[in-house]
Amino acid sequence: MLAFLGAVICIIASVPLAASPARALPGGADNASAASGTAAVSPGPQRSLSALHGAGGSAGPSALPGAPAASAHPLPPGPLFSRFLCTPLAAACPSGTEQGDAAGEREELLLLQSTAEQLRQTALQQEARIRADQDTIRELTGKLGRCESGLPRGLQDAGPRRDTMADGAWDSPALILELEDAVRALRDRIDRIEQELPARVNLSGVPAPAPALPTTLHSKMDELEGQLLAKVLALEKERVALSHGSHQQRQEVEKELDALQDRVAELEHGSSAFSPPDAFKISIPIRNNYMYARVRKALPELYAFTACMWLRSRSGGTGQGTPFSYSVPGQANEVVLLEAGHEPMELLINDKVAQLPLSLKDSNWHHICIAWTTRDGLWSAYQDGELRGSGENLAAWHPIKPHGILILGQEQDTLGGRFDATQAFVGDIAQFNLWDHALTPAQVLGIANCTGPLLGNVLPWEDKLVEAFGGATKAPFDICKERAKV
């Protein structure tokens, strides 16, 4: 280490003193006086301490811009400075005249070591700076080469290219300035190329990336997707319901087809009579107040109706009694068909009365139909398929109330009870059907002749809907077959 420092100091001492800038020295003497004092002692040209600091960073006379300046240290004036420069630190330093005492030499040696250490640090900083500049230039040169490799040939050849790695001394001020200009030019060209690159790429036909969809559009798509999913689920439920409904409808159609096949089979065997699905009758053998049959189905509100039945009286000519009565809460006589004693048969609706020209005293089976509509209170009475009488103003504009009780064979004085034996029906009742509209005369005739059988759409004659009480009996019976035997 001492040999290296001695060599550096000898090199610095060989440089003429006139090349260094003027700096102040301790003791109040300026650079000129220090230079003259030094020249009087040393035979060769000497340099001041400020010149030593200026030359310690590089081998040339000037340093790169931005290099830190060395700090000044006080030196002894006159011959002492000359002896300081020629103090033998290694074999390379020439021997000089020894002056002063030992204490002064030790102080000079310490000062010299401190100065040499600062010079060495300054040299290392300058070297690191130069290497960083070289790395920056190489990086910019590589980036420029990559950018120019993707551009047209004409753009690659545009502008002069400087060989920043050419041979030459890095300590030349002209070369340093040239490198700085080259770096600035490279940066300008790279910025310009990066600005022009997107336009050139678009012009080359490369499709631009699709813009990102706005957030509102994403929200709308999610909402529509949710609505679509809900609609799909609703359609799926609808499909299941339709499938279930179609299954039930198919069963009903199959049932009707089976009935038609049975009818065809009967016609093929020569029978013209119709056999209803529930062929039975209700028999009340004696007049009393406890035998009756009750319909187990509630009726809806009716604005018109047709009630048809087969009746056979066994009263002995003293009146048919009450074939049926319908009561609702608050009105016991909502609909009643009654023949009391020797009086004609009557139809009561909401306690309003119309006399019917019907006769059932011969103890034979007779088909009876009663039709009524609330509009103008029109009514019609059929016996054995023939119209026997009609009228109007029977409880006009009064709808039949729902959720009442329908009794066969007894007249109700209260809802479902308080029967009177004098008004009881004696005989047989079959095929009681109820519709919510007035049947046509042709339909009534077809039912009476067993050629156009119909079941009531409000109340059909079915075994499961009719229950007998008090000794009234339910027995199998088909009136159409019985009439066919006659």
Kindly describe this structure.
This protein is an alpha+beta fold. It has a domain at 280-484: Jelly Rolls. Helix content is 39%, strand content 18%. It contains ten helices and 14 strands. It has helices at residues 2-13, 31-41, 49-55, 79-85, 102-149, 153-157, 173-203, 215-268, 441-448, 479-485, and strands at 280-284, 292-295, 304-313, 321-328, 331-339, 345-349, 352-356, 366-373, 378-383, 386-391, 405-408, 427-435, 466-469, 473-476. The strands form two sheets. It has a seven-stranded antiparallel β-sheet with strand order 10-9-8-3-12-1-14. The protein has a seven-stranded antiparallel β-sheet with strand order 7-6-5-4-11-2-13, with no helix packed on it. The protein is rod-shaped, with a radius of gyration of 66 Å.
Per the CATH scheme, the topology name of the domain at 280-484 is Jelly Rolls
What is the SS-derived class? alpha+beta
Instruction: Please report the distance between the alpha carbons of the first and last residues.
Output: 153 Å
The averaged pLDDT comes out at 73
> What's the helix count?
10
Radius of gyration: 66 Å
The CATH architecture assignment of the domain at 280-484 turns out to be Sandwich
Order of helices and strands, N to C? HHHHHHHHEEEEEEEEEEEEHEEH
How would a crystallographer describe the biggest sheet?
Answer: 7 strands, antiparallel
**Which descriptor suits the 3D outline?**
rod-shaped
Give, in spatial order, the strands making up the sheet with the most strands.
10-9-8-3-12-1-14
Helix content: 25-40%
CATH C-level name of the domain at 280-484? Mainly Beta
Number of strands: 14
Question: Which stretches are poorly predicted, pLDDT < 50 over at least 5 residues?
Answer: 6-97, 151-168, 201-206, 208-213, 270-275
* Relative strand content: 15-25%
Domain Pentraxin (PTX): 278-480
Cofactor: Ca(2+)
Organism: Castor canadensis (American beaver)
GO molecular function, one term: metal ion binding
